[in-house]
Amino acid sequence: MRESDRYNGWTNWETWNFKLWLDNDVASYNHFQEVAKMTLEDDKIEFKVSDVEKYLREYAEDEVDEHLESKNIGWISDFINMSKCEIDFHDIALHILKDEGYKE
């Protein structure tokens, strides 16, 4: 991917937006920094980036499901799920881990 294809340094708008919301919510920011610290400290975790990536993906799935399951919002549900599929969780996981000192 060319740098000019990125959005504010991120893979795309969806990735940038998701990370923006994570960073701007103090509880979620602190939570994911703790997840990164614990992941880096655990010598048994071999694939640190993919582990955090999986956790981020599950977090997003749960948040979307929680907000959509109580409402009948038709096309908006499809739109939200489509946007969620575009998030580059690997990119976000890598940045979160790097913030905690992870070296590739």
Tell me what you see in this structure:
- The protein is globular and about 45 Å long.
- α2 (26-41) runs antiparallel to α3 and α3 packs across α5.
- 69% of the residues lie in helices and 0% in strands.
- By secondary structure, it is mainly α.
β-strand percent reads under 5%
How many domains make up the 3D coordinates?
1
Order of helices and strands: HHHHH
Mean pLDDT: 86
Largest sheet: none
Radius of gyration (Å): 15 Å
Distance between the termini: 19 Å
Specify the helix fraction band.
Answer: 55-70%
Q: Quick gist of this model?
A:
Helix content is about 70%, strand content about 0%. It contains 5 helices and no strands.
Features:
single chain, 104 residues, mainly alpha, 5 helices, 69% helix, globular
SSE topology:
Elements: H1 13-24, H2 26-41, H3 48-69, H4 75-85, H5 89-99
Helix pairs in contact: 2-3, 2-5, 3-4, 3-5
